Amino acid sequence: GNSVTQMEGPVTLSEEAFLTINCTYTATGYPSLFWYVQYPGEGLQLPLKATKADDKGSNKGFEATYRKETTSFHLEKGSVQVSDSAVYFCALEQGGSEKLVFGKGTKLTVNP
Amino acid sequence: DAGITQSPRHKVTETGTPVTLRCHQTENHRYMYWYRQDPGHGLRLIHYSYGVKDTDKGEVSDGYSVSRSKTEDFLLTLESATSSQTSVYFCAISGQGVTEAFFGQGTRLTVV
Question: Searching chain B, which residue's CA lies closest to the CA of residue A96?
Fold first, then answer.
């Protein structure tokens, strides 16, 4: 079945550090891939998405590239801020299913 | 923000009692979902709906039932709450052909 594996957390960084959160997936065909962010006490928001191979999603300095050859969708940001502290979820939607499959989440804490 | 409202936002209930959570949307989206979020598990799909009176089970559906009598409302019922159902419950919506989902603020349910 479809699945998403993302790096275990928690991740703690200093402000302005480089961020990478790894995400790999298992799916048949060509799923759409997403990164969601959850700030404390809130629901999930969609920072970025990619719907086909080699697409790059980007939003507010975050980027992720859909790599079909490595079945990966790693999240990166060049310089994190304290306000980026949140839990990040990688997810996929198997084409036509309209259902999302989530990774377990990675908690990021950015210290000033 | 997508028009999606969950109620109640917090609830404490006793083991063995029935509980109903409500999700209401104003976006006229076809698909609605109920997820639960637990530490170490990420988000797991309980049930989903692809139209009025059309529902199906997700990966963790045991002990839960749903109903959708109108496009805008999706109800999740715990027939007889157990402590293992203590969790944060999220409702999500998506439209046909729209690959991303929009999430509600969540309902924190505690079963004592």
Answer: B97
